[in-house]
Amino acid sequence: MSESEPVRAYTVRLELQDEPGELLRALEPIADNGGNLLSIFHERGNITPRGHIPVEVDLEATPERFEEIVAALRENGVNVVRAGAEEYAEELVVLLVGHLVDTDLSDTLSRIEDCGGASIDDVALSAPDGTDELSSARIRMDTHAGAASAALATVREVAEEKGLDVVEPLAGGGDA
Amino acid sequence: MKLAILGAGAVGRSVAELAGEYGHTVTALADSSGAAIDPDGLDVDAVLERKDETGTVGDDTVDAALDTSYDALVEATPTTLDDAQPGFSHVEAALERDRHVVLANKGPVAERYDEVRALEAESRGRVLFEATVAGAIPTLSTVRSLGPERVTAVRGVLNGTANFVLSRMAAEGLDYEHVLAEAQDLGVAEADPSFDVEGTDAALKCVILANVLYDGGYTLDDAEVAGIRDIPGSALELAAEDGRTVRLIAEVADGDVRVGPRLVPEHGTLAVGGTTNIVQLETEHAGRLNISGAGAGGPETASAVLADVGLLEPLE
User: Fold this and answer.
1) B178 with B167: CB under 8 angstroms?
2) Which of B234, B244, B252, B256 best tests the A interface by mutation, with the highest count of A CBs <10 A?
3) Cis peptide before B39 (omega within 30 of 0)
């Protein structure tokens, strides 16, 4: 069945550690799972805030194969930031309130991403009284279709551990 | 219908004042310090005037009010948690005498619902409590007409004080403490606002809804509750930059009761302003229904009490 599905072009955005062999480790799962590599854009000079190197890979695959590729990348420990608009279907926005800076905001964000189902799109931080006082952050993330509740559970868990308050979006489409 | 009214605060008082207009007679009116009783019907204006002048409605006791002649007991004393006393004893006393009970007090149906239903089953009297959920908004009667088993979720803004504070904070860019002080000056918030801003009041209403939807078994301990006290103005600004706002949303769905601050679209249905309440029902066959209006206030809540009274059959 899957082979009768049309082949489509996808862009996968990855974050790699700056170590030898990392790029190969990222490309193998694509080739091994039937993806056809089109181009690789390795942004060596553009390190992310977490010290990673962003890499953009264009490839062709059927939708089903593409899902397998993304899963295989994640299994290989490759951080997939964005994998095509269709893959990341649900947008999720949460507010976090508390001592966000003291409790290591970048750790909070990477733990949310590490849950596997979410990629953080945008973070806005407001600390009007200085970073020693209560601050707020708005975090917008893209989540896999159906993975929003798992991502939210991770947010709650991290917040609970760090003593932060979470303002969640409404569940169940009740935001009309 | 003859009514005995326990509680002479904003709601009890308004029920007494409006009862005549609805064709009912008030035979007793009690507050915490005493009671006025007349089996042939009280002069409500005179009783309330006396309360304003002397601080008490009369020299009789609450027990005597419970024993006098009435068809329905209107329980409008303050809501208490845990054993829900003395409200629960008042309900018990009226049902044991085969009288109807109409509650404005949330305690008995939030904290001791199963016991209230068991007492009702042994009595010829019925227990109705429309006024306990969202004041004037006909929430329970709408649920009843749809059928509780066909209502799949209820969510809403069920506390006017918390909503006033959040909507003012968002509109004016002010902090919690500032808006709360303003709300207290306006009489929207109590001197001790914790019941409202910590989410307890909204949670009690949700617990009552859960008891109706799932046929009992819920108390406040079953609710997951978070309040709005720790939300800084900066969080509301961040929400607003994104076309959203924060409301204290109460939800009953899939057997769970949750109350907490939630992000909602700024111009969405649930983003009601000021002290307005909104109830949103998800139904199996009728889609989503929204009802909004006054969730508190003396005459508003009294209208829900008197709507319940109108449903009762006279007792001999």
Assistant:
1) no
2) B234
3) no
Strands A8-16 and A79-83: antiparallel
Q: Say what the pLDDT of residue A85 is.
A: 45
Inter-chain touch B246–A167, beta carbons under 8 Å:
yes
Confidence of residue B88 (pLDDT cuts 50, 70, 90): very high
Task: Please write the tens of the pLDDT for every residue from A131-152.
Answer: 778 899 999 888 776 678 888 8
3-state secondary structure at position B221: helix
**Does any CB of chain A come closer than 8 Å to the CB of residue B278?**
no
pLDDT digits (tens, 9 = 90+) for A22-71: 888 888 888 888 888 888 887 767 777 667 888 888 888 888 888 888 88
CB burial of residue B158 (10 Å; 0-12, 13-18, 19+) = buried
- Alpha-carbon torsion, ordered B104, B168, B177, B203, to 10 deg: 30
Beta bridge partners, B127, equal B101
| C-alpha–C-alpha distance, residues B38 and B41, integer Å | 5
Q: Measure the CA–CA gap between A48 and B73, rounded to whole angstroms.
A: 69
- In this model, does residue B173 exceed pLDDT 80? yes
- Given CB atoms, is B154 within the 8 Å cutoff of chain A? no
- Whether B205 is a known active-site residue: answer yes
Q: Which residue of B has its CA nearest to A122?
A: B242
pLDDT reported for residue A91? 78
Please, which residues have CB within 8 angstroms of residue A95's CB and are 6 or more apart in sequence?
Answer: A136, A137, A138, A139, A166, A167, B235, B238, B239, B246, B263
The distance between the two most distant Cα atoms of chain B, rounded to a whole number of Å, is: 63
ipTM above 0.85, yes or no: no
Question: If you average pLDDT over every residue of chain A, what do you get?
Answer: 81
CB atoms A175 and B251 under 8 Å: no
**CA–CA separation, B272 vs B266, rounded Å?**
9
The predicted pLDDT at position A82 comes to: 65
Q: Which residue of A has its CA nearest to B287?
A: A174
Please give the C-alpha separations between residue B228 and each of B109, B181, B188, B225, in angstroms, as whole numbers.
25, 15, 16, 10
Write the pLDDT tens digit of every residue in B212-251: 999 999 999 999 999 999 899 999 999 999 889 999 999 9
Residue B242, chain A, CB below 8 Å: the answer is yes
CB within 8 Å: B260 and A168: yes
Q: What is the pTM of this model?
A: 0.80
Neighbours of B301 (CB within 10 A): 25
Does residue B303 surpass a pLDDT of 90? yes
- Do A176 and B268 count as a contact with CB atoms less than 8 A apart? yes
Contact (CB, 8 A) for B173 and B166: no
| Residue carrying the six token digits 């904070």 | B169
